[in-house]
Specification:
13 helices, 17% strand, 2 domains, 40% helix, 7-stranded parallel β-sheet, alpha/beta, 6-stranded parallel β-sheet, Rossmann fold
C-alpha cells in the first residue's frame, strides 16, 4: 500500500517537535518529510534526528518555485506550515489548499492589538485562502484562530507537546530520592532576555534572602544578552543540551518561569512531566494547561516583584510532603498532551 506523505514546512526545529514526529513515524502507512530553517545560534541545540524521517534545509531551495516543484513531486497527503512568515512556504500552501488538508500552526495569544485587528481584516485574503486548518497550543491561541475566521471544526489544539517519555522517566528516577531529601533549589531554564523576566527573579530571590535568610538556592540555565546577576546562592550554568538536563532535574526542586511575554512555554510542560511544583507569571500561555494556582504551583502578576517574592516564600515554607504532592499533580496535568496524542491529531485529519 502506498504511504501517505506528510510534509512539514517548519521554521526552527525543537527537540519536542522531533519527539512528536518520531511517534508519528511509527505508523507504517506514513512517510514524513521535513523542510526546516537553520538552527538558531541563540539556542544551539544538538539534535538527534529520527532516521525514518527525511530532512531538508530550507535554504537548499534556490527559489520558491523550486520549493513548490519539490513538494508537488512528493504528492503529499497533508501539509503543515509554521506560521505565515515564509513567502515560499505560503506559495506551497496556497497551491495545495483546495487539494489536501493544509494546516497552519501558530502560538500567538489574542491580545486585540492593532496588528492583530489588521490581521483579522486581511485574514480572508492572506491566511484563510492558504490553509484549511490551524493547529494551536491552547485556549488563548484558539481564541485568536476564531478571530481570524477559522471555524471550530478547523481548529486543532495541543500542537506543542514536550518529549513526555523522557521527562516522565526523570520523575520516576528521582521521586524516591526527593522523598528522602527534597532539593531546596529553584531552577530556571530559558534564554537570558529582558522579556523572560529573569531580572525580576534574581532581584526577588536576593531580596528574599536578605529579608528571610534560608537554605534555598537558585539555579539558572541559559544564555542571552543580559548580564547574569551574581550572588552566593545563585548559580549560572550557561546553555545546557536537553540530554544533559537529567543532572539538573535530580538536584533541583521547584521550577520558575517569570516571563513578561511567553506565548506558550513548552518548558512548563517539561518540568510538569518531571514532577516539579511550578511558579510562573500570568503571561505564560502554558499556564492554562499545566499550572493551577494553589494546586500544583502558583501564578503571579508578571513584573510584580513583591508578588513573586510571596510565591517564592510559599514554596520555601512548604513542607517536603506538600512540594512532592504538588509535583505529582503536575505530572497528572502533563499527561493531557503527549507525542502520542499529538500524532493522533494528524492521523485523524488524514482519515
Amino acid at each position: 500500500m502506498e504511504k501517505k506523505k506528510i510534509v512539514f514546512l517548519y521554521t526552527e526545529i525543537a527537540s519536542y517537535f522531533l519527539a512528536c514526529i518520531e511517534k508519528l513515524a511509527l505508523q507504517p502507512t506514513i512517510e514524513i518529510i521535513v523542510i526546516r530553517w537553520p538552527v538558531n545560534q541563540e539556542a544551539p541545540f544538538d539534535f538527534s534526528f529520527p532516521s525514518s524521517v527525511s530532512f531538508y534545509q530550507r535554504n537548499d531551495f534556490e527559489s520558491d518555485d523550486k520549493l513548490l516543484t519539490f513538494v508537488n513531486n512528493l504528492n503529499p497527503s497533508i501539509i503543515y506550515c509554521s506560521g505565515w512568515m515564509d513567502k515560499g512556504y505560503l506559495k506551497v500552501c496556497k497551491h495545495f489548499k483546495h487539494k489536501i488538508p493544509v494546516i497552519v500552526g501558530f502560538d500567538n495569544q489574542w491580545k486585540a492589538t492593532f496588528k492583530q485587528q489588521i490581521a483579522r481584516i486581511i485574514s480572508p485574503f492572506k491566511i484563510l485562502n492558504h490553509f484549511s486548518h490551524c493547529w494551536v497550543p491552547g485556549i488563548l491561541q484558539k481564541e485568536y484562530a476564531l478571530k481570524l475566521g477559522f471555524k471550530e471544526k478547523q481548529i486543532l489544539s495541543g500542537f506543542y507537546a514536550c518529549d513526555f517519555d523522557f521527562f516522565y522517566e526523570q520523575y520516576n528516577l528521582n521521586k524516591d530520592k526527593k522523598r528522602i531529601n527534597f532539593p531546596k533549589r529553584f531552577i530556571y531554564v530559558g534564554r537570558y532576555y529582558e522579556f523572560k523576566g529573569l531580572k525580576d527573579l534574581w532581584n526577588a530571590f536576593i531580596e528574599l534572602q536578605n529579608e528571610s535568610p534560608n537554605e534555598w538556592e537558585l539555579w539558572c540555565l541559559g544564555i542571552g544578552d543580559i548580564e547574569p546577576i551574581y550572588h552566593e546562592k545563585i548559580k549560572h550554568f550557561g546553555f545546557v543540551q536537553p540530554k544533559a538536563l537529567p543532572e539538573y532535574l535530580k538536584e533541583t526542586g521547584v521550577f520558575v518561569l517569570p516571563s513578561h511575554f511567553e506565548p506558550w512555554g513548552v518548558v512548563i510542560h517539561e518540568f510538569a512531566s518531571s514532577g516539579f511544583p511550578i511558579i510562573c507569571s500570568d503571561k505564560v500561555g502554558a499556564k492554562t494547561a499545566f499550572v493551577e494556582n494553589n494546586y500544583n504551583g502558583y501564578i503571579y502578576e508578571s513584573g510584580n516583584i513583591k508578588a513573586l517574592k510571596a510565591v517564592l516564600l510559599k514554596m520555601i515554607l512548604a513542607s517536603p510532603e506538600k512540594l512532592l504532592e504538588m509535583g505529582e499533580k503536575s505530572v497528572e496535568k502533563a499527561k493531557q498532551i503527549t507525542p502520542e496524542i499529538w500524532a493522533q491529531q494528524i492521523i485523524t485529519i488524514i482519515k
